[in-house]
Amino acid sequence: MTNTGQESRTITLLRWGLGLLLLWAAVSKIANLTAFLGSLNAYELPLPTASLKIIAVVLPWVELLCGLLLIGRVWPETSFALAGVLFAVFLVATGQASARGLKIACGCFDLSIFGIDKEHSKFVQFIESPGFAFFRNIALLGIAIFLAKSSRHGNDHEKAKPKAWKKGASPPDRAEPRLPPRGASKKWRKA
Q: 52 exposed, middle or buried (CB, 10 Å; 0-12, 13-18, 19+)?
């Protein structure tokens, strides 16, 4: 396998990983909007209650849309930028909560689908802490930026094309018209 093939696979795996993660987060929140609103309230953000309610309803659907766009490779640059904005917002929210020492669950994912009991597991409490979520969001934002840059530079599929094609040259299926062989008759030229 060539280096380009490995890069393309890595980009595809990262894109799918971010997409699935956003889908999981969205479905977790959509399934229980009231619990998600409670998580937002726990962050003690300086926003009116009406704004938090709007965020609680809209954010999961934006995550769902972004996840589907990433998985479907639809509008890749837009979906990478949207994912980057989401992770930057999450980074700020979890960062301020961690800096203020809030002892809350980040509200990002529903771990109960794996049969994990939140209240009795120190590991789950650590995974859902704002401090851990802050560093997780740094990594996810970095991945989104990497994917956006890769998409902008055409690393996803452009490297598979020969260099001549990238510069505007004709691909082989658009071959130049044939010239007659030397000494060909005038009849050949008419055809």
A: middle
Domain range list for the chain: 3-162
Number of Cα atoms under 13 Å in the Cβ half of residue 33: 11
Tens digit of each residue's pLDDT (9 = 90 or more) over 11-69: 889 999 999 999 999 998 998 899 899 989 988 888 999 999 999 999 999 999 999 99
Residue 156, pLDDT score: 44
> What's the half-sphere exposure (Cβ side, CA atoms, 13 Å) at 124?
15
CA distance linking residue 183 with residue 57, whole number of Å: 78
- Whose CA is closest to 84, among 69, 106, 102, 104? 69
10 Å Cβ neighbour count for 13? 10
Q: What is the DSSP string of 139-184?
A: HHHHHHHHHHHHHHTTTTTGGGS-HHHHTTPPPGGGPPPPPPPTT-
Q: What angle do CA 110, 120, 24 make, to 5 degrees?
A: 10
Give residue-wise pLDDT tens across range 72-107.
Answer: 988 888 889 999 999 999 999 999 988 988 888 877
Inter-CA distances, 16 with 11, 63, 88, Å: 9, 14, 19
State CA 131 to chain mean position distance: 22
